[in-house]
Design brief:
Layout (H helix, E strand, L loop, with lengths): L6 E4 L10 E10 L6 E9 L12 E4 L12 H6 L9 E4 L17 H16 L4 E6 L1 H12 L4 E7 L11 H20 L8 H11 L6 H11 E6 L2 E6 L16 H12 L5 E9 L6 H15 L3 E8 L7 H16 L1
Helix pairs in contact: 2-3, 3-7, 5-6, 7-8
Length: 338
């Protein structure tokens, strides 16, 4: 089991060229006006290496109802790379996930909340440019941010998902969101007590929710930051930490094909931007693979060698699977070297 908070990790001197330790520190970023905070884990070397980092600081964005522990297996591979050993990495919990504050509104606008979060993180750390590393929903948010503010991003890395799923007629989507929101309001009004589970029950529930593709050991890692422990009648019980309102897909599928293609062309027209897309095989397709590859094609056509596409054997969370995490680590190590 992996548990990280204000820990120092030591490696043999031969593994790293300039330092032998790095730290993982919990960093909370306050949210003014509405209150609360973003919570995340800042990975960084304990000493200042003499060589400049190959890229700006990396911000990691996880998928829906995951948390920043989604990257706990991958980040050490990056830090142990000769290319990224002196690059700060901040993996944070999206609003309503992990240790970040829940929203006071009736639903989450996942894209807008994510875009605000990236800007908030950059302002907090005084990072003028960043590298975005996103998985699933996190990759989609990173896609939108890169299209809207390409001058702030030098490297964009997408794991499995890439862009918003298009819907050329969003009418049904709006109807569905409103219906879900009122159903959630009724549910929370009648009972605001979340169910609790034994450890084995909550582990199995998380495993089932990920389609049985995520190893139980990886589910344990997500639960470390995704569940809280309570004592009920003298027995330990566990509750999920993510806000139940994240079940309402309020910002999904409201963009048409032409909108998404235009965003892809804007990214592709940024000559200094580098893109790495890693797709699981089989992964998880949220649209026809042909549409996915069309956006990949637009990016490759515009960026040329500045855009890479790789297939990695595994499910949707291949970056948390034993074979997949090493493969992704190797791909990204080479990506930053080139």
């Amino acid at each position: 089991m992996i548990c990280l908070r204000n820990k120092v990790f030591k490696f043999p001197l031969g593994k790293l060229p300039h330092f032998s330790t790095f730290t993982v520190k919990e960093v909370k970023i306050p949210i003014p006006v509405t209150g609360g905070h973003l919570a995340g884990q800042l990975w960084q070397p304990t000493t200042a290496p003499p060589t400049p980092p190959p890229c700006p600081p990396i911000i990691c964005l996880h998928g829906i109802q995951d948390n920043s522990n989604s990257f706990n297996l991958l980040i050490p591979h990056l830090l142990l790379s000769n290319n990224l050993h002196n690059t700060p990495i901040y993996a944070f919990d999206l609003p309503g996930h992990g240790h970040s504050t829940h929203t006071t509104s009736l639903y989450y606008h996942s894209f807008f909340d994510g875009l605000l979060s990236i800007h908030r993180i950059m302002k907090h750390f005084n990072w003028p440019k960043v590298t975005l590393l996103g998985h699933s929903l996190g990759a989609v948010i990173s896609f939108i941010f890169t299209a809207a503010w390409p001058e702030k991003v030098t490297h964009y890395i997408a794991l499995d998902n890439l862009h918003p799923i298009p819907r050329n007629d969003p009418t049904h989507g709006f109807q569905n969101v409103v219906a879900q929101a009122f159903a959630m309001e009724t549910k929370l009004t009648s009972s605001n007590v979340r169910p609790s589970y034994t450890h084995s029950e909550i582990l199995q529930k998380l495993y089932n929710s990920r389609g049985g593709q995520l190893p139980l050991s990886a589910c344990e890692i997500l639960l470390q930051r995704g569940a809280s422990k309570i004592i009920n009648n003298g027995e330990p019980r566990f509750r999920f930490l993510h806000d139940v309102k994240t079940n309402i897909k309020a910002s999904f599928r409201f963009l048409g094909d032409t909108n998404i293609e235009a965003m892809a062309r804007r990214i592709a027209s940024s000559p200094d931007l580098r893109v790495c897309i890693v797709k699981g095989d089989p992964g998880e397709d949220f649209e026809e693979r042909e549409k996915y590859m069309k956006i990949v094609g637009i990016l490759k056509e515009g960026l040329g060698q500045g855009c890479e596409f790789h297939l990695v054997k595994g499910g949707h969370h291949f970056h948390m699977e034993e074979e997949g995490v090493g493969r992704v680590g190797g791909i990204l190590g080479g990506f930053f070297k080139r």
